[in-house]
Specification:
The structure is a single chain. The chain is elongated and about 70 Å long. The protein is built from no helices and 18 strands. Strand 11 and strand 12 form a beta hairpin. It is mostly beta strands.
C-alpha cells in the first residue's frame, strides 16, 4: 500500500479535518485497520505512546477505522480533531495496519505485511515555535520554547560572510531540544547559526552566537 501523506497538521478548531488517501497497487485485496496513539511528552526522554481504545478518550477520529481496498483501488480516510483551546500542540500517531487475508497455497506460505504510521499535530490557533541556543558545559543545543514543533532541515554557521555547513538535522518538539553534534561545534564563537526551518511553512532563521 501507499499513503499520499505521512504528516498531517490540524487546528484546535471545530471541523478541523484532513484526508489521507491509501492506495493498493498490489494484485491482492488489502484488508486494513487503523490504530490511534496519543504521544505524551513528545521529544523528551520520558516520551510515551498510549494506544487510545476508550471511546471517552477519543479526541482524534478517523473514518473509516477499517476498510477493504480492492486491487488497484484507493480509499480516502478522514481525520478529524476534537481537541479544543490547546495551550500546546497535541501529537498523535495513527497506524495503518494491513490484516492477513486468506492464504491460498498447497505449501507453507509466508506473507510479509508492512504497516505505515502517520504523524499528526493538532496545534493551537496562535501556535508558534521559539528557537534559542543553550549551552550546558561543552554541549550546545537548540531549544524550542514555543508551543508547537519545528523541523530543522538545514543548518550552517556563518561568520564574516563565510558560511560552513553543519550536519545537525531533526524535529524539535515543544519544550524539547536538539543537540548540535558537529565535532567542531564546541568552537563556535561569534557569527550566527542560519537555519532552514519547517513548521507549517519553510523559513530561514538566524540565531546570534
Amino acid at each position: 500500500m501507499s499513503l499520499d501523506k505521512i504528516i498531517v497538521y490540524l487546528h484546535d478548531l471545530p471541523n478541523s479535518r484532513e484526508d489521507i488517501v491509501v492506495s493498493n497497487p498490489d494484485q491482492e485485496t488489502l484488508y486494513l485497520q487503523t490504530e490511534i496513539y496519543r504521544v505524551e511528552n513528545a521529544g523528551l526522554p520520558n516520551e510515551e505512546r498510549i494506544r487510545v481504545v476508550n471511546p471517552d478518550e477519543f479526541k482524534l477520529l478517523i473514518s473509516p477505522s477499517r476498510a477493504v481496498i480492492p486491487a488497484g483501488a484507493e480509499k480516502r480516510f478522514r481525520l478529524m480533531s476534537l481537541d479544543r483551546d490547546l495551550e500546546k500542540e497535541q501529537v498523535y500517531r495513527v497506524t495503518f495496519k494491513p490484516v492477513v487475508g486468506e492464504l491460498k497455497s498447497e505449501k507453507n506460505a509466508l506473507k510479509i505485511l508492512v504497516a505505515y504510521q502517520v504523524l499528526i499535530f493538532v496545534q493551537p490557533q496562535d501556535g508558534d515555535y521559539q528557537l534559542s541556543l543553550e549551552r550546558q558545559g561543552a554541549q550546545l543545543s537548540l531549544a524550542n520554547r514555543g508551543n508547537i514543533n519545528v523541523e530543522v532541515v538545514e543548518m550552517e554557521y556563518c561568520r564574516a560572510q563565510e558560511c560552513r555547513p553543519m550536519t545537525t538535522r531533526g524535529r524539535i518538539y515543544a519544550e524539547a531540544r536538539l543537540l548540535i553534534e558537529d565535532e567542531w561545534a564546541d568552537d563556535l564563537s561569534g557569527g550566527v547559526l542560519r537555519l532552514r526551518a519547517r513548521g507549517r511553512e519553510m523559513e530561514t532563521i538566524e540565531i546570534p552566537l
